[in-house]
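In response to reviewer comment 3 from the previous cycle, which asked for concrete evidence that the modeling workflow produces usable outputs, we include below a single protein chain processed end to end. The sequence was submitted unchanged, and the resulting structure tokens are shown without manual editing.
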Amino acid sequence: MAKSLLSFLVFSQAIIAFPTEHPSGSPKSTNKAKRCGPVSQFYGQNASAWQIHKTDQWLDSWANTYGKNISANPNGFAATFGQWAIGNPDWTCRDDGSASSCDLDLCDNRVLNNLGDDMRNAYYVLEAVNCLHTYFTGLSQAFEVSAIAAALSKESWSETFYKPKNNDKTLSTLKEALNAVTTVIGIGASFAGLGEGMAVVGAIGGAMSTVASGASAAGSLQLQSAKDDTFKKDADLGAVLSKVVVESMKSFTAANNQLMTGSNYDNTGDIKSYLSGGAFVSFPGVDKNAVIDVMNAFLLGNAVNELWRQQKIFILGGGNCGDGQGIGSGPKDYSLCKDGKVWYLYYWHEGNGDFLSNKQWGYVTMPPGADKLGQGDYAGVNVSDVISSSLDSYNVAEYAYDANKASERVHEALQQGWRNPGAQCPSWEGTFTIPVCDVGGAVGQNWLDKQYILEEYGSNARPVWCGPICSNDWDKTKRFINAANMNGFKSPKHICTDKGVDIKY
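The workflow returned the following structure tokens.
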């Protein structure tokens, strides 16, 4: 748990004197006179204006010029900037219970209106700092409500999405599920800063990546207290996840106070990093309901993924949408047609081992709890999310998409501006990493019983894989078999070996 920051310190020394030089030169008078003074010509600010007028560089110059003043001021950066820009040494923007510590009443402010060439950039920074404070306040309020805990703790997910073998009631998923949560926390924090409809454009991406790093760092601190790496199948996984997330976000909002003093938050960056590119200069506020919905969906997706990854659950496909290519057909209600190819979600229910029973080899059916997705408590995630996310994960890292890769890809998406992960919700890559096998290469092959590679769900449905079904490659097929927890599992190849086919998986 991150240490609590020191409470607000009241000034106990004389007001700090400032140099008379401004970073960009001497103040110049202006002939423009509007109701709120010359500064009003800069109203309607946005990230593009911030970048065009090189506010990042201006702020760096200002911070260098007034570095000693910032260090000498017990409230650091914000108070120093507030005194310089608007004549208010109490503009601390701290989260200390005060409702006015970051108020901005800039209309007809004589100090600001007399800043000449510095006026525009000073105004942009004032608005951005205020909005960053609003961001942290909104994030804190969103995670003070019980909506996340209530949504995640309604019932035991492990009973819904996991079927134990031989009544084994112990899972080893909690540690991995929690590892994934740190990335989810970062996604949620960046989504709160961007919103659903806002793209990651240009320089904003750097700030959003910094935000994600800060939130993930807070999550990592919380995980240090999660010592157990197993839990009973009837334990409430949702309650565990919700507690970690809520506490992580509360810890992250403490970054507000550190950043406002000018400190570097947990080696993720100082306030200049968080403001870079104008990311917060026109921030409209946190959409609390949207953030909660996104976080719930991502958390549900990650938890279900970790439960399913311990079972014989996988995705087959790669043939043309509509099938009819001689390799069988799968369950339509648990499929996704993407880029002209169809993909099916499967669970191989193990047999009872009784050689006198026609169920000894098991059968394929829907994964546990898959019929609950997309409705009720699980409305935030559906089957198409599972398949789409898993396909993207597979295309990026095959069967090695882990928590480190997930974090890396989120930061790439934000920094390079090619995706707002939060807006994509649980279909974002890495939410699901269900093993994928592209069986399209089987079309045209002369393999035994290849018409049974794909099967509809049913108590008598047992796929037959008498060839290198994954991309027509034995090594990749072996990697898939291992990833799908079917190493040493004889069911898909029993008929093949009985008929003398040499199977290399």
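The longest helix spans residues 119-142. We consider this sufficient to address the reviewer's concern, and the full set will be provided in the supplementary archive.
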